[in-house]
User: What shape does this take?
Amino acid sequence: MADSRYNIIVIGGGAVGLGVALEITRRFPRQRLLVLEKEDRVARHQSGHNSGVIHSGVYYKPGSLKARLCVAGAAAMVEFCREHGIPHQVCGKVIVATKEEEIPRLEELRQRGEANGLTGLRMVGAEELREIEPHAAGLKALLVPSTGVTDYALVCAKYAELIATSGCVLTSAAATGIKRSASEIVVETPRGAFATDALINCAGLYSDRLSRMAGDDPGVMIVPFRGEYYDLVPERAALVRALIYPVPDPRFPFLGVHFTRRITGKVDAGPNAVLALAREGYRHRDINLRDLAGSLAFPGFWRMARQHWRNGLGEWHRSLSKAAFVRALQRLLPEIGEKDLVPGGSGVRAQALKPDGALVDDFQFVPSGKMLHVLNVPSPAATASLTIGKAIVDMAAKNLGLN
Assistant: This one.
């Protein structure tokens, strides 16, 4: 017997789950809405551990969900921050080619960004790069003026506050069971059982598990990758004016170690991308045997490992060796030294992996009866959370019968 009944339940209190819930309150204000979050407050994982960048959409394949939702989502995020007094800055960034062979890839990025609707993209030479970022080194750079920074923990807190005016956000309420019948879906939690007509799974690091809990086959496994940061010591923070990125390796879904001046003024260096040994593996010593066994038992894990083992070893080397991490950073900022960096925070990216070993590149939303599973929403999900919310609610209205 359920303790309460709702028209719709959203599982997950990160940027995407809250973005979905906020859109439901705007579009369907009479629906009884419940957001279930397993932690004691919202944005405890991916949304609260990222670098705070408002991504422009320059990297993503034209026509993809990532491209369409990020470009529109970045503009919506800036407007949301402006409307609600959340600190933000549209500071722009430079993507820097430090080798001749990277210049064609940089030009491809410019073309891709323009195909995605970005304006103001401009290739600059070494001299103009120095005018923009005086301490950066490179042969050429792509200037991306629409990139910005904010604080997504504050954004998510505001989302939750707005949702609570007509819905309910319940924390410390992990989904421990999901039972489906012809008439309802019941979600069991430590804080009671809740019945609903429709359910949207935005559980991030656990989205595949919740899909299986509900009796569905997600077709993917969430593999956690930890991104580790160093911080520039305050007296060296002036080396970076805004954001300095390398040209990404097209074979890998990560952007490479880079420099980010956060909205607080602190400068981050990183992240790397190492395989985490737990879905909440923020430190080397965080090991969860269930998470690890699940990854090792998935055929796609070994196929991915065979394909990317060299990259993986390089990332682990940088994780264990500060000197190696610094060498990677010196490509962009030659003046940086080990003494200029102190250990910073870390985050864990929920990356969906296919059985054939391919990393899912685009966002993935999968309807199943009266449920909708959000199975792959890594970066730029926080940037695009308002437009992702609209896209998911569009799908829910069609597939789950919201009215």
Remarks:
- DSSP finds ten helices and 20 strands in the chain.
